[in-house]
Backbone:
């Protein structure tokens, strides 16, 4: 799997969302398109996480003339520069990205040893025990250790309640190490394609 993350400030939220939805209706998803999770933070940061079967499918999709036109249209609605993250190293946990999510949290940071975090995410019984409101998610890691984790929750109230539960000390140490210095982006009204 391959994940592309697009981020940038956008105060024209409704226009951008409409443009993105119209684009998806007008052009059939390219081969290898698996889906996407999109939303805005409270401070108007667009975070778009799109999943493809592999890098080649993502690049072929981006190279289509209609995709290039849609991208240009999107850029005119952004308030400034847009950041891209391209990740070949993707881990899916629990049910992965879910269109059933009522709340999505995007976590970005840098990690020295992704294997430790991946091992924790692979333990479905532990995740269900610690966070029963978590539906699933993805972990995308770039070559330099920069990561973007997308976590889908049933709803925000349950996520906020259960994030206060203290995990066992060994799990807490691992999370503290993995998420040190991370930035959290809360998507209160996510949408999916």
Residues:
């Amino acid at each position: 799997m391959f994940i592309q993350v697009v981020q940038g400030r956008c105060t024209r939220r409704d226009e951008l969302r409409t443009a993105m939805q119209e684009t998806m209706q007008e052009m059939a998803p390219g081969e290898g398109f698996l889906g996407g999770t999109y939303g805005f933070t409270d401070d108007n940061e667009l975070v778009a996480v799109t999943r493809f079967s592999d890098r080649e499918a993502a690049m072929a999709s981006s190279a289509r003339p209609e995709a290039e036109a849609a991208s240009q249209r999107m850029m005119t609605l952004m308030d400034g520069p847009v950041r891209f993250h391209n990740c070949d190293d993707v881990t899916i946990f629990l049910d992965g990205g879910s269109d059933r999510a009522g709340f999505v949290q995007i976590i970005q940071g840098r990690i020295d040893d992704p294997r430790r975090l991946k091992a924790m995410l692979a333990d479905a019984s532990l995740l269900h025990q610690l966070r029963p409101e978590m539906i699933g998610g993805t972990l995308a890691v770039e070559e330099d250790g920069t990561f973007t984790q997308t976590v889908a929750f049933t709803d925000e109230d349950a996520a906020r309640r259960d994030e206060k539960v203290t995990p066992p000390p060994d799990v807490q140490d691992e999370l503290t190490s993995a998420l040190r210095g991370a930035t959290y982006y809360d998507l209160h009204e996510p949408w999916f394609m």
The mean pLDDT is 91. The radius of gyration is 17 Å. The CA atoms of residues 2 and 142 lie 11 Å apart. Helices lie at 13-26, 55-63, 65-77, 114-122, 124-130, 156-162, 169-178.
